[in-house]
Write a structure and sequence with these properties.
By secondary structure, this protein is mainly alpha-helical. The protein has helices spanning 2-19, 37-45, 50-61, 80-85, 102-105, 107-110, 126-137. The structure holds heme C. Heme C binds at residues 9, 61-62, 64-66, 71, 74-75, 92, 102-103, 106-107, 110-111, 113-114, 118-121, 124.
Length: 154
């Protein structure tokens, strides 16, 4: 099911990329914040929490593709163990160093071969990007077990 879903998503993204040169945005609606204003505000000034702030964003915008079923061998956001194993945490997310974290710096180029970022679905908002960047600066804590496990099916 997961593979089918990802293939469908990618096919839709590819078709749109081929058939309409200027309407890339059709598969990439302007991003809306996943979190409510209060959560964005608390993350902007205080400690960013994986479970309260980071997880809901990744679940809504990234984890449906980035898991070991959808993209075997590529970066996975499914849980802390897989994140470490696939380099998501450690290689792509360098704790303490958002500027070295390809997770953030390569977001656009990573998806350039499929002409979108993320290829379908909503883009990250500027608030979300700065929230994720602050999370990485603060050490990118990713809890093990259930607290750090994301829903990867929509
Ligand atoms: C519809 C599926 C899909 C969604 C949603 C998606 N990605 Fe991707 N992503 C891919 C695919 C497929 C690749 C591999 C692209 C390639 O190699 O050309 C990729 C590659 C990447 C890479 C580069 C990995 C590498 O090996 O160099 C990063 C970083 C990344 N994605 C981050 C994200 C983040 C963060 C989000 C959420 C905001 C996201 N992606 C959402 C499908 C997706």
């Amino acid at each position: 099911m997961q593979i089918m879903r990802t293939l469908l998503l990618l096919t839709a993204a590819a078709l749109t990329a081929c058939t309409s040169s200027e309407s890339e945005s059709e598969t990439r609606p302007t991003g809306r914040n996943v979190l409510d204003a209060a959560a964005i505000k608390s993350a902007a000034s205080g400690q960013v929490s994986f479970t309260d702030h980071v997880k809901p964003i990744l679940e809504a915008k990234c984890a449906m593709c980035h898991n070991q079923t959808g993209l075997p061998g590529r970066l996975s956001f499914a849980n802390q163990k897989e994140a470490v194993k696939t380099g998501t945490l450690g290689v792509f997310i360098v704790p303490g160093h958002p500027e070295k974290s390809r997770f953030l710096t390569h977001l656009k180029s990573a998806h350039s071969s499929i002409k979108a970022m993320p290829p379908v679905g909503e883009t990250l908002t500027s608030e979300e990007i700065s929230l994720l960047s602050r999370w990485i600066s603060q050490g990118a804590a990713w809890p093990a077990a259930k607290a750090g496990t994301l829903i990867t099916e929509g």
